[in-house]
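[SOLVED] Predicted holo structure with flavin-adenine dinucleotide

Edit: marking solved, answer below. Original request kept for reference. I posted the sequence and ligand SMILES and asked for the 3D complex as structure tokens.
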Amino acid sequence: MPDNYDLIVIGTGPGGYVCAIRAAQLGMKVAVVEKEKTFGGTCLNVGCIPSKALLHASELFDEAGHVFGKMGIKVGTPALDLPTMLRFKDEAVDGNVKGVAFLLRKNKIDAHVGIGRIVAPGRVEVKAADGATATIEAKAIVVATGSDVARLKGITIDEKRIVSSTGALSLAKVPQRLLVVGAGVIGLELGSVWRRLGAQVMVVEFLDRILPGIDTDVARQFQRLLEKQGIGFKLASKVTAIDSSGRALKASIEPAAGGAAIAIDADVALIAIGRVPYTAGLGLEAIGLKLDNRGRVPVDGHFATTVPGIYAIGDVIAGPMLAHKAEDEGVAVAEIIAGKAGHVNYDVIPNVIYTSPEVASVGKTEEELKASNVAYNVGKFPFSANGRAKANQQTDGFVKILADAKTDRVLGVHIVGADAGNMIAEAAIAMEFGAAAEDIARTCHAHPTLPEAVKEAALAVDKRAIHM
Ligand SMILES: Cc1cc2nc3c(=O)[nH]c(=O)nc-3n(C[C@H](O)[C@H](O)[C@H](O)COP(=O)(O)OP(=O)(O)OC[C@H]3O[C@@H](n4cnc5c(N)ncnc54)[C@H](O)[C@@H]3O)c2cc1C
């Protein structure tokens, strides 16, 4: 007799493991299926956590070399011990994945290690690494199989010299010249890491701007700041081939609109052109579940697929490929399966780029508001006028609040500046509660703090910022 559950979750990334825990809290008997040796998915193993550990360590390395002296802290020229820095990153991963294993045990969730294949609605076959198979059954199945790196046609990722984000998290030495293909979040974060550790970094981007989808004003300012840090950009350009036969890589780069190619030499090339949904081996076609034209699992407003009893969440469905979006969907689908009213508010999903300075946003961009003919007011406040930023000499960037011209309701908040990623939480809460810019402006903010710039930007919506 196969083991019988209320719910089987395939994949233990932030979508899957959070869904499993919420379902167990709601009284369900739950199993997870995971093909890797450790739980936590892309985010904990090769994504959010290791990249943030390296961003943190490399930022301190850079500060020790360039900022400490100004503050009267004499440490001499810092020396890089890359193996130890990589170990620091691995320890961060280890602590987090063990944490998930503990939470699964604590919530009495059975973990089946192997590749999960849905053989029929309610039935999953799990194939272990040694080839042994077992079948488990449940009333409901949640597909949370996440995403994989997108590849460039004709360019083979070897994870040594031509790397994806995964290889870029473990380079054995600092490349002299790093070519980053794609000016999205992952390319800019990992480009920043290796720049701070000493690499010359050139970013090639197909579009004529960095960070598509981010407010243009913010993206422009951010590009200038990255250029000041020594990162080079080649926009409106495409990498068409990388020759790896010689000692140096030779990348052919053409204008996006077509034209003559130029060659750029590099020691390592990071392919960071995005991620694609991952459904390999799941057997979806055989059970009549068709993917959309971008390889995603189509779901309705309740995360239900077209096959009864099968749901999907996270990177494998439409929407921003973000860990916290996957987590919130995990909670919502568990609640829906339990007969409750699970819900995700897609208008308020924060987005953070953990560079220095950080970039964070939530809600609509100016471009989106213009495109949908929404009249809005803008309140903008620079960190150069914020007392704490001045004290810390971290004055780059600004806060921009977009508020409805008629109702003053906050529609979008965009921040470039130190600690933007923490500051955006205030904006998200305000928007979730339907706040007006006036509500933020009248909320007492502690002094001296960087979030006072959020309050000032809210005052600036009504043209009454105090410190400007
Ligand atoms: C370098 C990098 C940095 C990132 N940084 C951030 C960040 O700072 N903040 C943020 O919000 N997001 C970040 N992301 C994105 C984030 O990692 C993803 O959005 C998130 O992991 C998606 O969660 P998920 O649960 O949908 O899928 P995943 O985390 O991809 O997990 C899917 C799991 O399913 C398993 N699986 C797949 N198929 C099967 C199968 N058939 N059987 C069994 N198991 C299977 C996989 O092994 C995996 O463990 C980053 C990504 C990368 C690559």
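OP edit: The pocket of flavin-adenine dinucleotide is lined by residues 10-16, 33-36, 41-43, 47-48, 51, 115-116, 144-147, 165, 186, 278, 281-282, 314-315, 321-324, 326, 354 (CB under 6 Å). Thanks to everyone who chimed in.
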